[in-house]
Design brief:
The complex is a heterodimer of chains A (278) and B (299).
Chain A lengths: L6 H4 L2 H5 L12 E12 L2 E12 L3 E5 L6 H8 L9 E9 L2 E2 L7 H7 E4 L11 H11 L7 H11 L3 H4 L12 H14 L4 E5 L7 H14 L4 E5 L3 H7 L2 E6 L2 E7 H6 L4 H7 L5
Parallel strand pairs in A: 3-8, 3-9, 6-7, 7-8
Antiparallel strand pairs in A: 1-2, 1-4, 4-5, 9-10
Helix pairs in contact in A: 5-8, 6-8, 8-9
Chain B lengths: L1 H49 L2 H6 L15 H32 L2 H14 L4 H19 L9 H24 L3 H9 L4 H12 L1 H17 L2 H6 L17 H10 L7 H33 L1
Classes of the chains: A alpha/beta (278), B mainly alpha (299).
Bound molecules: adenosine-5'-diphosphate and magnesium ion.
C-alpha cells in the first residue's frame, strides 16, 4: 500500500539530482537504521529520501522548523504513520537489522518494541494511574505474574513513583500535566520496549516539569534507545548525543550534537541554530 | 444630534422587545409543563379520594371499565416493562454494534450512505410499525411459535426495538466519534490491536454518551403508544409471558381517551393516574441517568 505514489514524480529537480549522503555514526551499533525514507500525506511529499542510523543506548534529537516532517519521521519508526488515512511511504527501516516494513511483519509487534510518547499527555481518561501503567500489557494480552512490581518499576523509571504511590487508584487525568506526561512515559516503559520515541514531549509543560523529564531521559538512556523530537534547540543540546536537522522533509545534517551546534557543516543548519530562521 | 439618540432608543426598545418575546417563549414551555403537572396532580388527587392507594398498589387486577372494578396498576406496569424490555433486548446489541461499526470500522463513504439511511428508519410513522407487527410479524412468528396469540407482547416489542435502533446507533456513534484521536493513538502506540483499542479503550471512554443514548431509547420505548396499542392486545394482564395479549400504560390511555368514557367520571380519571405514573417513571429514569452520567464524568 505504501508504494502507490512514485517518489521521483514528487521530487523537485534539485532533489532528484542530489545524491543523499548516508549519515551515520561509525563505531556504535545502529539500533534503528533508516534508508532512503520518503513519506507522503496524500499527494504531498513530507519526507525526501532520509537516511540515518540511530545508535543503541543513545539519545538522538530531531530538530527543525514546524512542519518540516519531524513527527512524520518518528511516526514511521514505529509504523504509526500508516494509521493516518492517505499516508504512504517508500524506503526501508531496520530494527536490529530486520526490515520493519517487510511483508509479513505485524505493525502491532513493532509498536511493542518501539514505544511512543506524544506531544500532549494522553493518559486513558477512564483508567486509574495504575491501570494506565498496565494498559499496554492488558491491551496486548500479556500476563506478567506480578502486576504490582510492573507498576512500581515503570513508575520508578519514569521518576513518578514517589509522587503517586499513595494514590494509584485515582484517575490518571487527576495528575498535573507534567505528571501525566511522566505517566505516559511509564505506560510506554511498562511493555518493556527497546526504543522510546518522544514527539515534543515537553511542549505542553512548564519549565520545571520539562527539567524533570530531561533529567529522566538521561537515566533512561542506559536501558533504551531514545529518539526525541523537539523544536527547542537548547533541549536538544542538553539531552542528546546526536542531532538530526530536518528542513522541508530533507535531512540536512545528522551528527554529534556538539558538532552540529558549534560547527555545523551546512549553511542552512548554521542559519537555523543561530536563529536566523525557524 | 437628536436623531441618532432617538434611533438608539428605538433600537434599544426593539432589542428589549425581542428579548421579552424570547423570554415569553421560554416561559411558555415552562408554563405548559407546569399546567400539565397541575392537571395530573389534581385529577390524581380526586382519583385517590375515591380509590384507596392500597388498592392501586396491591391489587393485581386492572379492570376500571368493568362492573367489577379493580385498580391495581401492576398489570399495566408489567405490560410496559415486558414490551420495553423486549425492545431494548433487540435494539441494544444491534444498535450498539452498528454504532461501533459506523464509528470505528466503516470508511467515510460507507458511513455517509449508511447513517442517513438508518436515520430514515426513525422517520417511519409508528402506525406503520404497529400494523407491521400485527399483520406481518405476528403471523411469521406464529409459524415458529404455535402458542403465540394474535395479539402479544413479542411482536410489538421486537418492532419497537427495530424502531429505536437508529436512535441508539446515531447517538452512540456521536459518542464514539467524540472520543479524541489521541486516546486511540495512545492505545495503538502501546501495540494494541484494532479490536482491543475499540472495545477496551474507545468504548469505555464513550460510555457516558452511550449510556445517555440507551436511557433515551428506554424512555422512548416506555412512552411508545401506537405500536403496542395496535399489536399487543389491550388486555391488562399481570404476566411476563410474551406470547399472550397484554396492555401497556400508554395503550390504556389511548383506549380510554378514544373511547366513549364520559369526562369527570372515575373511569376517566384513571387515565390521569396512569399518566402520572408514567410521568413519574420517566422522570425518575432521567434523574438517575443524569446523576449517573455526572458521577461517571467525575471519575
Ligand atoms: N494527517 C495529516 N494529513 C495531511 N497532511 C499532514 C498530516 N500530518 C502532517 N501533515 C503535513 O506533513 C508535513 C509535516 O508534518 P509533521 O511531520 O507533523 O511536521 P513537524 O512534526 O515537523 O511539525 C506538514 O506540512 C503537514 O502539513
Ligand atoms: Mg510535530
Amino acid at each position: 500500500m505504501q508504494t502507490t505514489v512514485d517518489s521521483d514524480a514528487c521530487l523537485s529537480p534539485p532533489y532528484r539530482t542530489m545524491e543523499p549522503a548516508q549519515m551515520s555514526n561509525p563505531g556504535v551499533a545502529a539500533k534503528l537504521s533508516v534508508q532512503e525514507l520518503s513519506a507522503w500525506h496524500g499527494e504531498k511529499q513530507v519526507l525526501v529520501r532520509v537516511s540515518l542510523d540511530l545508535p543503541e543506548h543513545e539519545i538522538s534529537a530531531v530538530i527543525g522548523p514546524s512542519g518540516c516532517g519531524k513527527s512524520t519521521l518518528i511516526r514511521c519508526l514505529n509504523r504509526m504513520h500508516e494509521l493516518v488515512p492517505g499516508a504512504t511511504h517508500r524506503g526501508s527501516i531496520q530494527l536490529d537489522g530486520e526490515d520493519i516494513y517487510a511483508s509479513g511483519v505485524d505493525p502491532v509487534l513493532i509498536r511493542r518494541r518501539v514505544g511512543m510518547v506524544f506531544q500532549k499527555p494522553n493518559p486513558f481518561p477512564t483508567m486509574s494511574i495504575r491501570d494506565n501503567v498496565l494498559a499496554g500489557l492488558r491491551l496486548t494480552g500479556m500476563r506478567p505474574g506480578d502486576l504490582d512490581a510492573v507498576v512500581e518499576s515503570a513508575l520508578q523509571q519514569a521518576a513518578l513513583w514517589s509522587e503517586v504511590k499513595d494514590r494509584l487508584r485515582e484517575p490518571g487525568t487527576s495528575l498535573s500535566g507534567g505528571q501525566q506526561q511522566r505517566l505516559c512515559i511509564a505506560r510506554a516503559l511498562a511493555v518493556e520496549p527497546e526504543v522510546l520515541l518522544l514527539d515534543e514531549p515537553c511542549s505542553a509543560l512548564d519549565p520545571i516539569a520539562t527539567t524533570r523529564i530531561e533529567d529522566l531521559l538521561g537515566t533512561l538512556r542506559e536501558r533504551y534507545t531514545i529518539v526525541i523530537v523537539t523544536h527547542n534547540m537548547q533541549q536538544a543540546a542538553r539531552v542528546s548525543q546526536q542531532t538530526a536537522f530536518l528542513l522541508q522533509g530533507e535531512l540536512v545534517e545528522f551528527t554529534e550534537t556538539d558538532a552540529l551546534f558549534t560547527k555545523p557543516k551546512d549553511k542552512r543548519t548554521e542559519d537555523y541554530v543561530t536563529g536566523k530562521f525557524g | 444630534m437628536a436623531r441618532p439618540a432617538s434611533m438608539r432608543r428605538s433600537r434599544r426598545v426593539g432589542e428589549a422587545l425581542i428579548e421579552r418575546s424570547m423570554l415569553g417563549c421560554a416561559l411558555l414551555s415552562v408554563v405548559t409543563t407546569a399546567a400539565i403537572l397541575a392537571i395530573l396532580v389534581r385529577q390524581t388527587g380526586e382519583f385517590f379520594a375515591e380509590v384507596p392507594i392500597s388498592a392501586f398498589l396491591f391489587d393485581t387486577q386492572w379492570t376500571p371499565l368493568f362492573a367489577d372494578k379493580h385498580f391495581g396498576i401492576w398489570p399495566l406496569l408489567a405490560g410496559t416493562f415486558l414490551t420495553s424490555a423486549i425492545a431494548i433486548a433487540v435494539a441494544l446489541p444491534f444498535g450498539l454494534l452498528a454504532a461501533i461499526y459506523l464509528g470505528e470500522f466503516a470508511t467515510p463513504r460507507i458511513r455517509g450512505v449508511l447513517k442517513p439511511t438508518l436515520e430514515l428508519l426513525a422517520g417511519v410513522p409508528t402506525i406503520v410499525y404497529g400494523y407491521f407487527a400485527l399483520v406481518t410479524l405476528t403471523p411469521v412468528l406464529q409459524k415458529f411459535m404455535p402458542e403465540l396469540s394474535g395479539f402479544n407482547a413479542l411482536a410489538p416489542g421486537i418492532v419497537m426495538g427495530v424502531m429505536i435502533i437508529p436512535m441508539i446507533t446515531s447517538l452512540g456513534e456521536d459518542a464514539i466519534s467524540a472520543v479524541p484521536g489521541s486516546v486511540r493513538e495512545g492505545a495503538y502506540a502501546l501495540g494494541a490491536g484494532k479490536l482491543a483499542t475499540v472495545f477496551r479503550v474507545v468504548l469505555p471512554t464513550a460510555l457516558s454518551g452511550i449510556a445517555a443514548a440507551v436511557v433515551l431509547a428506554v424512555s422512548r420505548a416506555v412512552g411508545e403508544t401506537m405500536i403496542v396499542a395496535i399489536a399487543a392486545g389491550q388486555q391488562p394482564r399481570l404476566t411476563l409471558n410474551p406470547q399472550v395479549p397484554v396492555e401497556t400504560m400508554t395503550a390504556y390511555i389511548v383506549q380510554v381517551g378514544m373511547g366513549d368514557t364520559p369526562t369527570g367520571t372515575l373511569e376517566y380519571r384513571t387515565i390521569f393516574v396512569v399518566g402520572a405514573t408514567l410521568f413519574a417513571i420517566t422522570f425518575a429514569a432521567n434523574l438517575l441517568s443524569q446523576r449517573w452520567a455526572r458521577r461517571f464524568r467525575e471519575r
